[in-house]
Amino acid sequence: MSKQMDVRSRLRGRGFSIPYNLMLITLGSALIGFGIKAVAIPHGFLTGGMSGVALLVYYVVGGLEPGQWFWLLNLPIFTLAWWLVSRRFFLYSIYGMAAVGLFVDFMPQCLDIQDTWLAVFTCGVFIGLGAGMALRSLGSTGGTDILAVIANKRYNINIGKFRFLVDLAVFAAGFGFLDLELMLYSLAMTFVTGAVVDYSLNVFSERKMALVIAQNTEAVMRDVLDKLHRGATYLEGRGGFSGKRKQVIMVMVNNIQLKRLEEIVYSHDPDAFLIIGSGYNVLGKGFSSRKVY
């Protein structure tokens, strides 16, 4: 069992390697660029964050391509990334910003979506998935993602909610220049984007915490260790009605292992209690590693 857990730990350790981070940022930037170029720009949507500011300037002022405005407006924010986060985060984010700008400028407009609400949903999903994928790395795609990471790192503010608050400020500025109906569509798109960002950040990290109260806890523990290949902890409990002391097993599992845990528990005690709770961020051996920018 320990060998299997060590292998999983080594594989997770590679998740913060340079190639892995560059892959996440590149794919995330491609999705963001595709959402902006193929959906947002043809429909005149205003995306949130710094890309939204760049689009607003592009719609109103022109002069440069949207990707070039994005690069230019990002420069002051990168000073904060250098001083308040880390140089590694700064360098990864520089790469992410450049990648988004290039994808926006050179990616072809290959989607022809006529329905506006379908375009709202599609654009929100692409940009949200891209931003979430990039934020799972040790960098970002620049702009408000940098501010969101700083706010999360220092004040534990939810990244998706922070992005949405910044987006509201962008839309408040856009109301004076763009069509009201398009602004409302754009606002709806940011709801989708924020929800997808939070989902993509949590879905692969979500774990289930199980508390097992059974008669034969030693047999259950043995199967958890040998068959489920998960570590577990004994907690001392006492029955509220009987007053008898009992051993309670606490174990963290993923969604796939949850059904197997249920089978193990009830194969030993059909009258057992199995209490399941959600754990969105489990740090430690066999689970996620602590993210240090």
From TrEMBL:
One Gene Ontology CC term in the entry: plasma membrane
Chain segments annotated as transmembrane: 20-36, 67-85, 92-111, 117-139, 160-178, 184-201
Alphabetical list of CDD domains matching this protein: YitT_C (cd16380)
Keywords: Cell membrane, Membrane, Transmembrane, Transmembrane helix
Source organism superkingdom: Bacteria
Annotated localization: Cell membrane
Membrane topology reported for the UniProt record: Multi-pass membrane protein
Domain DUF2179: 230-284
InterPro entries associated with the record: DUF2179, N-reg_PII/ATP_PRibTrfase_C, UPF0750_membrane, YitT
Protein name from the UniProt record: Uncharacterized membrane-anchored protein YitT, contains DUF161 and DUF2179 domains
